[in-house]
Inverse folding.
């Protein structure tokens, strides 16, 4: 049984994304090294995550959701670090991907990675170009979907091999050194399928309606609220308007992250600037089937 790396997430009802998360990390790390916090102790989550380490918690609606969630995930990460060299933590629709041209698996990569670091993969948001891509997602996502947009907001410090504190949302840590390996990417899947997006947003809108408060009061992502949703089809049609950047060289993105690296005010966290690049790239053939 390997003790190099574990993966940790929290989920409630998101079967589509959980299946992708389990295929990815379960296949690379082994399900026995996957930790799933089952928010609400859902039967579907328990069934899908069979063979993983499932942590059931109450699902009653409550305020300060995100703060409580990340407080718990922080503590779980530090506990798992007692037994694993690296812990990968994030939302269920976020997957760390190693560039296939590295010629090894993510687990093999982490086996030789230097310890006592926080690794920050470049964030890429997989988008469904509904004007071009009519193939349904079945066994894999990359293949039916080939377009990504640069997403600095999802360049998250999500692989930890050192004691650290992660900010709410997973966007910042207190580590003062930035490591952005060329081979690593964080794929955000929220927009990978039009139908899945609409269903997921319906569910999230129901959750916030049950909580019955404003964004500031509930402390959950603004995008969970119906008034911030917009018209679903318009969101996806807009992806066609993003400038297409040829090739797949993200060196300048990483350079900008390092050039703007600085303390996040007096919070104790560190950050880089997260500009809106408003561009998209087409993934090279080597990425087909990675998730």
């Amino acid at each position: 049984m390997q003790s190099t790396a574990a993966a940790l997430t929290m989920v409630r009802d998101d079967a589509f994304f959980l299946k992708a998360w389990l295929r990815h990390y379960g296949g690379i790390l082994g399900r026995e090294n996957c930790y799933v916090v089952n928010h609400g102790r859902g039967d579907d989550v328990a069934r899908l995550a069979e063979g993983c380490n499932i942590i059931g918690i109450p699902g009653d609606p409550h305020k300060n959701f995100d703060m409580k969630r990340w407080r718990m995930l922080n503590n779980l990460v530090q506990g798992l670090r007692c037994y694993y060299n690296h812990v990968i933590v994030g939302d269920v629709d976020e997957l760390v991907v190693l560039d296939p041209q590295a010629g090894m698996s993510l687990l093999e990569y982490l086996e030789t990675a230097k310890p006592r670091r926080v690794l920050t993969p470049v964030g890429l948001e997989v988008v469904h170009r509904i004007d071009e891509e009519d193939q349904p997602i079945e066994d894999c996502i990359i293949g039916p979907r080939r377009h990504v947009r640069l997403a600095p907001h999802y360049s998250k410090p999500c692989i930890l091999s050192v004691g650290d504190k992660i900010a709410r949302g997973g966007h910042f840590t207190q580590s003062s050194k930035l490591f952005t390996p060329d081979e690593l990417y964080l794929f955000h899947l929220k927009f990978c399928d039009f139908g899945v997006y609409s269903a997921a947003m319906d569910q999230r809108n129901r959750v916030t309606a049950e909580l019955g408060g404003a964004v500031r009061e509930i402390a959950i992502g603004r995008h969970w609220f119906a008034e911030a949703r917009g018209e679903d089809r318009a969101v996806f049609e807009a992806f066609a308007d993003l400038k297409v950047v040829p090739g797949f060289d993200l060196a300048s993105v990483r350079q900008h992250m390092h050039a703007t690296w600085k303390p996040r005010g007096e919070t104790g966290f560190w950050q880089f600037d997260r500009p809106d690049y408003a561009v998209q790239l087409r993934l090279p053939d080597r990425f087909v089937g990675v998730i």
Helices lie at 15-29, 43-48, 65-80, 106-112, 194-211, 215-218, 232-237, 251-259. The first strand starts at residue 5 and ends at 11. The longest helix spans residues 194-211. The two ends are 23 Å apart (CA to CA).
